[in-house]
Amino acid sequence: MTDFSDIAPRLAEQAIELPSWAFGNSGTRFKVFAQPGVPRDPFEKISDAAQVHRLTGLAPKVALHIPWDKVDDFGALARHAADEGVALGTVNSNTFQDDDYKLGSVTHRDDRIRQKAIDHHFECIDVMNETGSRDLKIWLADGTNYPGQDDVRGRQDRLADSLQKIYDRLGDDQRLVLEYKFFEPAFYHTDVPDWGTSYAQVSALGPKAMVCLDTGHHAPGTNIEFIVMQLLRLGKLGSFDFNSRFYADDDLIVGAADPFQLFRILVEVIRGGGYGAGSDVAFMLDQCHNVEDKIPGQIRSVLNVQEMTARALLVDRGALDAAQTAGDVLGAHGILMDAFYTDVRPALAEWRESRGLPADPMRAYAESGYGAGIAASRVGGEQAGWGA
Ligand code: AOS
Ligand code: ZN
Ligand code: ZN
């Protein structure tokens, strides 16, 4: 099997974007459990995210959500991020918390509402111009609850038209990533339910439009790594929203529910050239920490991604190819499983120390006193956005 020392240099190429909304209060539709010390504004969200990067070296960017993270001066927010040692990343649009969008946003039959949704995306691009962000991420709550409620073909045509207008606003170095989700909040159909629909829509737009794959947005049993392989093969995998799901779109800590699935996904990412320097694929987290502490929740998440990335890098490609070519079914399978079952945690602890990072970032955070500090100094933290 490949030796850890052979893959160690590649680990430095890992960069994961943290979602600003992971640091605010969040919950389910049943209850939001407020936590002490949550950020009172976007500046404090960035400061909390920076703690994760400081202790792990893995999270140099923070994704924003507009209008949740709206500030008067985005230049000042970007400077604050730089002072904290991170940068602002993907800008997420929000067309799901306005009464006007009850029956749709960029797919709406009413020209006024559709234009309002398009204008919101123009505003997001203005933000990107100020923050220096590369990606505009679009997730739509658009869909219907009942068969016959609307003409699904017409909605798809309006979606294409709206996306084209948004795409045409992008700068040369900016991208649009279109996220798909097979249900919720609409339950009969969603207007971008699957990778095929996202792929068809972004392909019609042009090279700056890509697919965003949220690992929680598939039916149970879906072979997600196959989708990863296909999108990389087609050159259209723009970004990941990483999280874990047991039942629905649970937004739990990535790698917590099914580390083996995360490993299989990362094997295909590496195989398809989607990892590290030279790749444009954005690795984001899309998670909420409803009952666990938020900053440690994010630290655990990026460590989980790193652990599975290391295991995926350990796959002996040469031996695997030889076994596959020889038709050695169980031999090939065994080579993959050898890498998966390798406990990389001690080697990663050493790797961290060699780079001036704490061997155990979870413990380092617990001992840092940061959590107690923000609990004492911040009063009246805001909700992340859901239900706000
Ligand atoms: C919604 O289900 C999508 O995963 C979104 O990417 C995201 O969760 C939302 O935009 C912000 O929380
Ligand atoms: Zn998502
Ligand atoms: Zn989601």
TrEMBL record:
<dbReference type="GO" id="GO:0019301">
    <property type="term" value="P:rhamnose catabolic process"/>
</dbReference>
<dbReference type="GO" id="GO:0008740">
    <property type="term" value="F:L-rhamnose isomerase activity"/>
</dbReference>
<keyword id="KW-0479">Metal-binding</keyword>
<dbReference type="InterPro" id="IPR013457">
    <property type="entry name" value="Rhamnose_iso-rel"/>
</dbReference>
<dbReference type="GO" id="GO:0046872">
    <property type="term" value="F:metal ion binding"/>
</dbReference>
<dbReference type="GO" id="GO:0019324">
    <property type="term" value="P:L-lyxose metabolic process"/>
</dbReference>
<dbReference type="InterPro" id="IPR036237">
    <property type="entry name" value="Xyl_isomerase-like_sf"/>
</dbReference>
<dbReference type="InterPro" id="IPR050337">
    <property type="entry name" value="L-rhamnose_isomerase"/>
</dbReference>
<keyword id="KW-0464">Manganese</keyword>
<protein>
    <submittedName>
        <fullName>L-rhamnose isomerase</fullName>
        <ecNumber>5.3.1.14</ecNumber>
    </submittedName>
</protein>
<keyword id="KW-0413">Isomerase</keyword>
